[in-house]
Design brief:
With 307 residues, this protein is α/β, with parallel strands linked by helices. Helix content is 40%, strand content 22%. It is built from 12 helices and 11 strands. α5 packs across α6, α6 crosses α7 and α6 crosses α8. Bound molecules: manganese (II) ion (MN).
Length: 307
C-alpha cells in the first residue's frame, strides 16, 4: 500500500511545463496509488485564464485528492494577491505543493505558507519539479525554457530532443507527457525532423546569414539551428516581397536572432537607431519590416553592426 490514494498534478503547457508535469507524475507514482493530471491549452497554459477560471475547477475537485502539485504556473503578476488568495483556498482543503521558478515576492510566499501551502521556489528551470529531477528530461525541459543556468550540460542530442518537444507540445500535449513518462526518445527525434535544416549559410564573423527559403512559422527555430551548427552568436534571414497577413501589402522582412547560449548583447540593444522603430518581437528575436527592395540594405547594416 502506498502512502497516498489519489494525487493530482497541474502543469503548464509549453515544453518545459510538459517535462515538469511528466516527471512530477512519475515521482508521485511512487507514493500515490493513482495520479491524475491537468495540463491543457489554454486552461493551464494562459496564466490569467488559469487564475481566473481553471483554479475554480481545481478547487471543486480538491477534496477528492490527498495531494495536489501545481508546477511551472506563475501567479498572475497583474493580479498577484487575487491569485495567491485562490491558491491558498486550495491549500486549506488538501495538501498542496506549489513549485515554480518565476519571481515571487517574499510576503506572498509567507502569506501562502500561513495557509499551509508547501511553496518551493527554484532558481533554475531544471529542478522545477516535484521530487528529484530526471537527469535527462529535466535538462531537455530547461533547454526548451532557454534556461542559461544549465549551459554547461547542453549537447546537440538534448537540443534535438528539445526541438521535438517544442513541436509536439503544440500538436499533442498529452502524447508528449506520455512519451516523457515512458522515456520514448524516438517520439521527439521524429518530431524534431519537422524543423527544417539550414543548408545554404554564409558566415561573417560571429553572424550567420541563412539563404534557404524558410517557411514563415519555422524562421526563428531554423535560425537557432543555424547558430548551433556554425557556432555563431547571431543569425539573419531575409524574406523579400512577402504579403502582410493583415494589410495584404508586400514587404521585406529581416529576422535576426541571438543564440540563447551566447553571452553577447541582445539583438534589440544592437539595432541601428533608424531600424529600431521598424522592429518588433522579443529582444533576442527581432523582425524588421521595410518597403520591398530595402531588405538587402538592412541585412548589410546589420552585418556591419553585429559581426
Ligand atoms: Mn518554465
Amino acid at each position: 500500500m502506498k502512502e497516498y490514494l489519489n494525487c493530482l498534478v497541474v502543469g503548464h503547457t509549453d515544453g518545459h511545463g510538459a517535462v515538469a508535469t511528466a516527471i512530477s507524475i512519475k515521482n508521485l507514482q511512487k507514493e500515490c496509488e493513482n495520479v491524475d493530471y491537468i495540463a491543457k491549452f489554454p486552461d493551464t497554459g494562459v496564466i490569467p485564464k488559469f487564475w481566473k477560471e481553471t483554479i475554480s475547477d481545481i478547487k471543486e475537485k480538491a477534496k477528492n485528492y490527498d495531494k495536489i502539485v501545481i508546477v511551472d504556473i506563475p501567479l498572475d503578476k497583474f493580479n498577484l494577491e487575487e491569485s495567491a488568495r485562490k491558491l491558498s483556498e486550495i491549500c486549506s482543503i488538501t495538501e498542496t505543493h506549489y513549485i515554480d521558478h518565476h519571481e515571487m515576492p517574499e510576503e506572498i510566499k509567507e502569506f501562502l505558507e500561513r495557509y499551509g501551502c508547501k511553496v518551493t521556489m527554484r532558481r533554475s528551470a531544471y529542478d522545477t519539479v516535484y521530487g528529484k529531477p530526471d537527469p535527462k528530461w529535466n535538462l531537455v525541459g530547461a533547454i526548451s525554457d532557454r534556461d542559461p543556468t544549465i549551459r554547461h550540460k547542453v549537447t546537440e542530442e538534448l537540443q534535438e530532443l528539445a526541438d521535438g518537444l517544442d513541436v509536439l507540445v503544440r500538436k499533442d500535449l498529452s502524447k508528449a507527457i506520455d512519451a516523457i513518462i515512458k522515456n520514448k526518445e524516438s517520439v521527439f527525434k521524429e518530431e524534431a525532423k519537422r524543423v527544417p535544416d539550414p543548408h545554404d549559410m554564409e558566415v561573417h564573423g560571429s553572424v550567420v546569414v541563412v539563404k534557404d527559403e524558410i517557411p514563415e512559422t519555422w524562421v526563428y527555430k531554423v535560425l537557432d539551428k543555424a547558430c548551433r551548427r556554425t557556432g555563431t552568436d547571431y543569425a539573419i534571414y531575409l524574406s523579400e516581397n512577402r504579403r502582410d497577413r493583415t494589410t495584404g501589402e508586400l514587404k521585406d522582412y529581416v529576422s535576426v536572432v541571438k543564440y540563447w547560449l551566447s553571452d553577447k548583447p541582445s539583438v534589440k540593444s544592437r539595432l541601428p537607431e533608424e531600424l529600431q522603430s521598424k522592429a518588433f518581437g522579443h529582444p533576442d528575436a527581432q523582425t524588421i519590416v521595410v518597403e520591398p527592395g530595402r531588405g538587402k540594405e538592412v541585412v548589410r547594416k546589420l552585418l556591419d553592426e553585429l559581426r
